[in-house]
Sequence to fold (300 residues):
Amino acid sequence: MESSRKNSMLLNMERYAQLKSVLSNVEIPYAVIKGEPLSILCYNKKGVRNSQDIDILAERRYMSYFEQLLKTNGFITFVNQGKNVSREIRVLCISQSHQIPPYNKKTPNQQISVDLNHDLFWGEYTGKRIAISDFLDHTIEMNIYGCVVKTLPPIKAMIQLILHHYKDMNSIYRLAVNKCINYDMFKDVFFLWKNHKEEISLEKLYVLSQKYEIIPYVFYVLYFTNLIFKDRELQRYVDAFRTPEGELSLNYYGLTEKERKRWKVDFQTRLETNNMYELIRSDLAESDIEKIERNKKIFG
Fold:
């Protein structure tokens, strides 16, 4: 385990060395999310989380600004084993997902990937969107391997993490192609909360969740987190966020009402399986298969 962490840190060290040249002169609001900033917030250590790329959150209007920075520093954009990104794929990414196609830079040790995120929600979301300009208020600075970056404070890191996990646990595409329900995702939620209980107090989290109209999603992720950790204090959060809508969602998956399906297996089975696709394959309609194939073209 320690050897794996050291290797992760070495790869991340190189990633952040490349990122330093990109971010050194950024003058617009942004935050590096997930990855090493979250590792530090959750575990007070670098290299604990197994991240494969670097994620940057910024307003959609600044995507071209970051793209130019990345290109200037040797990053290129492509998907599906090196094919250039077509205008069609780019438009689909912007209109139907939370990010644009990733930018990559190959070094002797790895291919460094940077994801530019312009939204906290998924493409299918029809509710009130969170204004990224508002969400990026009060970012904090963090020194990661000598690269000073802006990142989210604990409570907003929790909001971002919860929405990310809800999407992964309900996206038919993600369920079909990845092991996206796993112990580590709930461990991140638990230790982010545990290490920052004052900043992520029940009152503060509830007020912010109410403002962003995401209470059922917070309940959903905290409910499953506490199924694993069984913490009495966290149970207070689960009870406070409980709503009929949130409770109803526990036994279903799908990001829209139209594609929603009832789970045929319990949560423990979902958590332990190495082949999620086999668990949902019989539920999928032709439109679901088409969606999975379309997303494969975009995201690989």
In short: The radius of gyration is 19 Å. The beta strands are 31-33, 54-57, 76-79, 83-84, 103-106, 111-117, 140-144, 147-151, 252-253, 261-262. Residues 191 and 282 are 36 Å apart (CA to CA). The first strand starts at residue 31 and ends at 33.
